[in-house]
Design the sequence.
C-alpha cells in the first residue's frame, strides 16, 4: 500500500493538472487501516466514546474488518468531536480542540495518507506548516535569510482571526475537487467536517471550520490556504510588483516581505478583501506594514524613533548588527511566549510537588526546560533562554521546598541535585544565523 501511495505522489509531480478519480479504495483497505492504527499514540486523549487504543486493539482484526466494510458501502458515520480546551495566552477559556474517537482517528489518518502525496507535489515552497520534512525552524531560517540577503525594506505581518473555526466548507470542497475526482473521498471528508462538536453533553452542528486536534485538519488547512494565499501571492501579487516580493507561511501564520513601501501597503489593503471572499477575516489589530531591513535602523533614528519589530512563530524579529557593525536579522523569544512558558512551568511545579518525589520532579522539570530550549535556543537568543533557565531554576527550588513543612534543600544541596540530573544550560541548539548562505 505504501508503494501505491508513493506512485500516486510521483504521478502528481509529473502531471500537476491531473485529477485523481480512484483513491477511495486506499482508504478502505484493511491493511492500510491496520497500519494507520499502529501509528496512533495510545496516550492521546479519547473521543466521545471513551475507547482507548488498547481497548480497540483487544479485538483489532474484527474491528478493522467491520470498519473497512462500513467504509466500502459508505455506511461509516464519524462521531462528534469531543470539545476540549488547552491554555492560550490572552484567553480565559483557552484554545478549543476537537478530539476524535479512536476509530475516527484511524480513518482520518488513512485519508491523510491518501491525499498527502498528491498535495505535497503541488504545495508552494513558501509553505512550511505541518508538512513532512519541514519545520518551524526551517521557516524561520528561510525568512531570516530572505530579509538578510534580498532587497527587503518592508514587512507585512498578518493574522487571520480564528482560522480553524471559520474555514468555509463549500470552498473547501471546491478546492479539493481541483485534484480529487473521487466523489466518495469528497463525501467522506464532508461527513468528517460536519460531524459536530460535543460540549457539556450537547452536540452542536458544525457548518464551518475544521477542528484543531483532528489528524486531517492540518492537511485540509494547508490545502485551503494554498489556494487562498500561496498561489495568489506567487502568481498575482509578486508578479505585479516592480520590486522584489517574498512570502513565508506556517499554518495560518504568515509574513510577506517587499522592496517598496507602496507595494507593501497595497498588499496590506488587498489582503483583507482577498480572504474575506473565502469566508475568512483579518485580525486588523494584529495586521500591519512596517519598515524592516538593512536601512530601517538608520531611517528610524533620523526620525528620532526606534526601529520597528515584528513577531512570528513565537520570536520577536528585530534589526541588529554583526560584530563588524553590519545589518543582521536577530530574534529573541517574544515576551508573551516567555511569560506564558514561565506561568505554565510555575503551575506545573505547584501541582507536581504533591504527586512526584523530589528526584522525579527534578527529572520532569529538566525535560520541560529542554523542551523549551529545543525550540527557542537559536542563534542570538541566548539572553532570553538564559533568563528562562534562571527563572525555572528558582521556581523549582521554591516549590521543591514547599513539598512539606521541612525545607528540602539548601542552595548548595539544590545545586548538587541539579548537577545530578544534568540541568540544561542555555547554549545555542539550532543554528539560524541569517548571514550564512543556504547549502546548495
Sequence:
Amino acid at each position: 500500500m505504501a508503494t501505491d501511495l508513493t506512485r500516486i505522489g510521483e504521478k502528481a509531480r509529473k502531471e500537476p493538472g491531473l485529477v485523481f478519480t480512484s483513491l477511495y479504495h486506499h482508504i478502505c483497505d484493511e491493511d492500510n487501516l491496520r497500519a494507520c492504527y499502529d501509528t496512533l499514540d495510545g496516550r492521546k486523549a479519547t473521543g466521545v466514546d471513551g475507547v482507548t487504543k488498547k481497548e480497540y486493539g483487544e479485538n483489532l482484526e474484527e474491528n478493522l474488518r467491520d470498519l473497512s466494510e462500513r467504509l466500502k458501502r459508505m455506511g461509516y458515520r464519524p462521531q462528534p468531536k469531543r470539545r476540549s480546551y488547552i491554555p492560550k495566552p490572552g484567553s480565559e477559556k483557552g484554545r478549543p480542540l476537537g478530539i476524535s474517537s479512536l476509530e475516527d482517528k484511524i480513518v482520518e489518518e488513512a485519508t491523510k495518507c491518501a491525499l498527502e502525496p498528491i498535495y505535497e507535489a503541488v504545495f508552494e515552497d513558501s509553505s512550511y506548516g505541518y508538512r513532512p520534512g519541514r519545520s518551524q525552524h526551517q521557516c524561520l531560517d528561510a525568512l531570516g535569510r530572505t530579509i538578510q540577503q534580498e532587497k527587503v525594506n518592508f514587512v507585512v505581518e498578518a493574522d487571520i482571526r480564528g482560522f480553524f473555526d471559520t474555514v468555509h466548507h463549500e470552498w473547501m470542497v471546491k478546492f479539493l475537487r481541483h485534484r480529487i475526482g473521487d466523489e466518495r473521498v469528497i463525501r467522506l471528508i464532508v461527513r468528517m467536517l460536519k460531524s459536530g462538536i460535543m460540549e457539556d453533553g450537547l452536540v452542536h452542528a458544525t457548518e464551518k471550520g475544521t477542528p484543531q486536534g483532528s489528524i486531517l485538519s492540518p492537511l485540509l488547512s494547508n490545502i485551503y490556504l494554498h489556494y487562498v494565499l500561496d498561489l495568489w501571492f506567487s502568481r498575482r501579487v509578486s508578479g505585479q510588483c516592480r520590486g522584489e516580493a517574498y512570502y513565508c507561511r506556517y499554518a495560518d501564520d504568515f509574513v510577506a516581505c517587499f522592496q517598496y513601501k507602496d507595494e507593501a501597503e497595497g498588499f496590506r489593503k488587498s489582503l483583507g478583501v482577498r480572504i474575506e471572499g473565502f469566508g475568512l477575516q483579518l485580525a486588523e489589530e494584529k495586521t500591519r506594514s512596517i519598515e524592516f531591513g538593512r536601512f530601517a535602523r538608520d531611517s528610524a533614528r533620523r526620525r528620532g524613533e526606534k526601529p520597528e519589530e515584528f513577531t512570528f512563530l513565537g520570536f520577536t524579529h528585530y534589526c541588529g548588527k554583526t560584530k563588524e557593525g553590519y545589518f543582521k536579522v536577530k530574534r529573541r523569544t517574544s515576551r508573551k511566549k516567555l511569560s506564558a512558558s514561565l506561568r505554565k512551568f510555575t503551575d506545573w511545579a505547584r501541582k507536581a510537588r504533591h504527586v512526584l518525589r523530589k528526584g522525579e520532579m527534578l527529572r520532569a522539570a529538566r525535560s520541560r526546560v529542554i523542551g523549551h530550549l529545543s525550540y527557542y535556543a537559536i542563534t542570538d537568543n541566548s539572553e532570553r533562554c538564559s533568563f528562562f533557565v534562571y527563572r525555572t531554576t528558582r521556581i523549582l527550588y521554591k516549590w521543591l521546598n514547599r513539598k512539606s513543612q521541612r525545607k528540602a534543600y539548601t542552595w548548595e544541596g539544590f545545586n548538587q541535585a541539579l548537577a545530578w540530573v544534568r540541568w540544561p544550560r542555555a547554549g545555542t541548539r539550532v543554528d539560524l544565523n541569517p548571514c550564512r548562505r543556504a547549502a546548495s
Summary: The chain has a mean pLDDT of 90. The first helix runs from residue 2 to 14. Residues 362 and 421 are 7 Å apart (CA to CA). The radius of gyration is 25 Å.
